[in-house]
Amino acid sequence: MAGAFGRAAEKLVIDVWSDVMCPFCYMGDALLEQALEQFPHSDRVEVRYHSFLLMPQLTEDAPVDLMDLLAAEKGFPREQAAAMHEQISERGRQLGLDYRFEQAKAVGTRTAHQLSHFAAGHGKQHEMVQRLFRAYFTDGLNVADHQVLGDLAAEVGLDRDAALAALASEEFAGAVEADIQQARQYGIQGVPFFVFAGKYAVSGAQPVESFVRTLETSWNETVGSPAAAGAGTAVAGTAR
Fold first, then answer.
1. What value does the mean pLDDT take over residues 205-215?
2. How far is the CA of 124 from the CAs of 85, 95, 98, 159, 196, in angstroms?
3. pLDDT at 232 > cutoff 70
4. CA angle 9, 15, 17 (to 5 degrees)
5. Which of 40, 50, 144, 146 has the greatest CB tally within 10 Å of its CB?
């Protein structure tokens, strides 16, 4: 189950807490993907995405200008926010990501997270998460709008009507809340947050080398080591 935590048999599981509107989550996803391209056992790695609300106070019925939001919530002058965004955009460009903060529509993301869980049940969670990131950061779409989300689901090969039905019924609202509660239990206060094999954590959009090292360590101590097959799944440490 996508919302479960820990290690699946014969696979190295990476549990990722992130939010659609988090620029470093988008970046962290790209960095992890690059690390997996260098990892010889990537075909035996399972990445599972979990919900986190970066700004839980936002509603889903009234998107707001991101610059105005940062000024109101964080006290950032528009010039300061623009400079910060340019730094993130430049780093993103080096990873092939296209950030267009000036057109981002800040909005509550609970429903977008429900769509991620729906996609997980059909083997399309990673594609869906990536498309949601692009929708928010590049396309300037309202990721709380059901019709927009239905279109995005169809783009990654999911049944649009089934996706809309799942969102309308809030079938995965409980799964989203369970992820949020689980993050609290593990003391996760910021995202992205990656947990490898239920044991090693990487916090933030760390360099590719950090992900590669953690992949190797967690693989060698779990899937790659018969003696470690029965190891527990408590988070033991944080890779920096």
1. 98
2. 30, 22, 22, 11, 20
3. no
4. 165
5. 50
Token output for 41: 């056992």
DSSP bridge pairs for 49: 16
Two tokens, residue 138: 């590049």
Q: Give the integer Cα–Cα distance in Å for 28 and 10.
A: 25
CB 60 within 8 A of CB 144: yes
Find, among 141, 122, 145, the residue nearest to 133 by Cα: 141
Cβ-count burial 11-50 (b if 16+ within 10 Å, e if not): ebbbbbbbbbbbbbbbbbbbbbbbbbeebeeeeebebbbb
The values of phi and psi at residue 24, to 5°, are: -75, -20
Q: Is the bond preceding 192 in cis, omega lying within 30 degrees of 0?
A: yes
Mean pLDDT, range 116-138, rounded to an integer: 98
